Amino acid sequence: MSTRSRLCLLLMVLVACTTGLSAPTAAHSAPRLPHTVVLDGARMQQTKQRLDRGDRQLRRAVAALTARADRWLDQGPWTVVDKPRPAPGGDVHDYLSQAPYWWPSQAPTTDNPWGCPYVQRDGERNPEVDSGTDRQDVEKTFDSAYDLSLAWYYTGDRRYAEKAGHVLRTWFLDPDTRMNPNLDHAQFIPCKYDGRAIGIIDFSQSYTAVLDAIALLETGAPGWSRTDRSAMTRWNADFLDWLAHSDFGTQEAAATNNHGTFYDLLLAGLAYATGDKGLARRTVLDARARRIAPQIAADGSQPQELARTRSWHYSTFDLVAYTRLADIGRHVGVDLWAYRGPGGQSLFKAVDYLLPAATATAPWPHPELDFHRYAATDVVHAAADAGDSRARRAVPLLQEPPGGDLWALRPAAEQLDSIAG
């Protein structure tokens, strides 16, 4: 190396040290852009670059994220074939979940293994829902894949990527353990209904996070191969076909409350992930007159959700679907936040309706059996990012969710409070 070259290299290192930037090394090369479905991939790429440069403001969020990811390292993987009894059709690869408030009226026998007929006990949760079906295992699959993929993307720790890949392959791809791409037996009632359309929400409320987890792994994660990618795309295409054309899918699409909004989110997300950007765009566009106009009132309230005994939960829950659908819209050239219905209905108004309770400046004036102020934190963040000045002023007053506020790392709304059934 010439004397001039040595001097130039020394100057680069000195500049890096005095400015806080790293010298040009492979470890700090620009991270690949994730082609995410809901999350803003370009924003995440910039956040990763800030982390690589030692941004102290992000350290707390990364610590919270890795704490979540670490808990998954010694759990799972999970599979639909592990349930004690198969779905009504007899195929152990079919996903099965159960209506929570229906109970057996007789002791199970060899001839009557479910103890039928089932009777309803409103508000009393049957423990079979958690122990005898796939419901809890699928939630763990979704949550772990998302947390682990995010943790790998931001830290580069291969343990997270390899675990996420193992979880996804076991649930969706491995021939011995994979799930069939349908929800024919979701929310079934033994001896009464083999499955119900409303069971689609088991996936529609959180599967788009799995689509983003896959997109993160596809930026070069160890243990996630081209074969995995192709097989996952085929699974998603088959699932999209079932969702769009099955009887249950048609029924759920017609729902006029949060079920319909979440159906649109899942349909648009699967369409975008499998390359059908036209369907994704049409779904977001149609949500303006089909969802926002009839489901959000002029004052921003959501009458269908306010009618529930947990009106706060369902109001925030529905807005998780709306704001995530708006995120997909950003990828296909549709600004769902800009829409104004004939009575002035809008997503901004719907979020603003929550602000007094979200910031603890006024009580929530509707029925709510189990109020959690933090349930609105993510949707307020989403509105603030979309340009709502009232939401932006409210952000410092929000309650941090359990496990920390991860908005800086995954800026898309999640369901932050859970509800049985």
State the helicity in percent bands: 40-55%
Q: Over all CA atoms, what is the radius of gyration?
A: 23 Å
Derived from helix and strand composition plus strand pairing, the structural class reads: mainly alpha
Biggest sheet layout:
2 strands, antiparallel
Element-level helix/strand string: HHHEEHHHHHHHHHHHHHH
Distance between the first and last residues' Cα: 69 Å
Low-confidence stretches: 7-28
Side-by-side strand order of the widest sheet? 1-2
Total helices: the number is 17
Average pLDDT figure: 92
Q: What's the total number of strands? A: 2
- Overall 3D form: globular
Textual characterization of the structure:
The protein has 421 residues and is mainly α. It is built from 17 helices and 2 strands. The protein has a two-stranded antiparallel ribbon. The longest helix has 21 residues, at 135-155.
Spell out the blueprint of helices and strands.
Blueprint: H1 3-19, H2 41-52, H3 59-72, E1 102-104, E2 118-120, H4 128-131, H5 135-155, H6 158-173, H7 201-204, H8 207-217, H9 226-245, H10 247-253, H11 258-273, H12 277-295, H13 303-306, H14 311-331, H15 347-358, H16 377-385, H17 389-394
Antiparallel strand pairs: 1-2
Feature tags:
single chain; 421 residues; mainly alpha; 17 helices; globular
Characterize this entry briefly:
The protein is an all-alpha fold and 421 residues long.
